[in-house]
Amino acid sequence: MKALDPTPSTPTDEFIKGLWRENPVFVQVLGMCPVLAVTNSAINAIAMGLATTFVMLMSNTLVSSLRHFIPKQVRIATYILIIATFVTIVDYAIEAISLDLHKALGAFISLIVVNCLILGRAEAFASKHSVGYAMLDGLGMGVGFTLALLCLGGVREILGNGSLFGVALFPAGFEPWVVMILPGGGFFTLAGWLLLINHLQRRRQQASAGMQEVAR
Amino acid sequence: MNETPLAKPAAAWPMYRALVGIGMLCGLLIVFVYAGTRPVIEANRAAALERAVFAVLPAATTRRTFVLTAEGGFERTAETRGELIHAGFDQAGTLVGVAIEASGMGYADTIGLLYGYAPERDAIVGMQVLTSKETPGLGNKIETDPDFLANFDALDVRLDDSGTSVLNPIETVKQGKKTDAWQLDGITGATVSSKAIGNILAASSSRWVPLIKQRRADLDAGVINEGS
Fold first, then answer.
1. Complex-level ipTM beyond the 0.85 threshold
2. How many domains does chain B have?
3. A104 CB within 8 Å of a chain B CB
């Protein structure tokens, strides 16, 4: 985890690192339980992504604010307490906003508590950096996580249901690939995205190496 | 012989201070948010209940809520607490069924459901899960599996000759093994959850069905007295 956290350069860099270079799903491969489980539709993916973003932003902020007050012997217990509090708050908020969405996300809202991504950022980053940087890290990682979930949810809903955000995309004759909205479809889609992103990153590295070769 | 020096124990006070202090702060935050969101959540639940009543009693066009009185009869009520049932009436004002809330332990947590009972047919004619935290992809098939939901087209709950108990209590059998009208075809892969639904319905119907049959006149009178 430490290797993924270079010395903070600029606030912008702290924010955007979570979007691509250190994307929590496609690069760090963290928090796979909700990634695979609730991305059977785009709206579920966005809701879970935003809920996780809120919890990560708030827990990073509080952990960073209290980092000099928390002894290292009890830090993990304290971080879990803080994360569980914000998850409970998110649980109430989603139930107030939409009962159907709350029902669709089901037990996975409560399971945000055990998302290793959130505890990982609290331990590896927020507890060692100032509040401003911790907030930017939480927000960046959260947005990156949400985008990754949306990538999966969008593909799965289009192929598995023939729609996007509930809007039908294909004519009536379209036969949905039901497997894509079943648990197996989550693995297939994630594998496809990882393949694509690794391919792009390899090409980028090769291009960069080629440029350096030419420069010599 | 040299003894390895013991590590100096950590001071206890900073740990107590951090855990208790942050615990109190977190508790206050939760209470504050709970108090703020509770009215909205209750309104959402009431609206969901309204939709569920008409889903489990599709022939109903209006519904009225009754509370079970201490004397064992039914009275119209506007309250949302107490032992409530929701009677559904058609356009002519005839009782078409009664929607009853029930709950019981599932695999992960308590399952809350609403089922529709049609006195004329002596059967449960619909069921909707209201609250459930059953395992996504497995246990939550109790809400989505069409074969399982087909059990509630007409689930027999007729009374015995004495009229005080259900003749054949509802029981859950293995998937595809249903032979009688009072049996629930379970779900392979969601055995505990589907059995839980059977147990909840068996317990609830054995209590409510005899009461509703005996005091059916109270439900009809609730409409007549209102003049609608």
1. no
2. 1
3. no
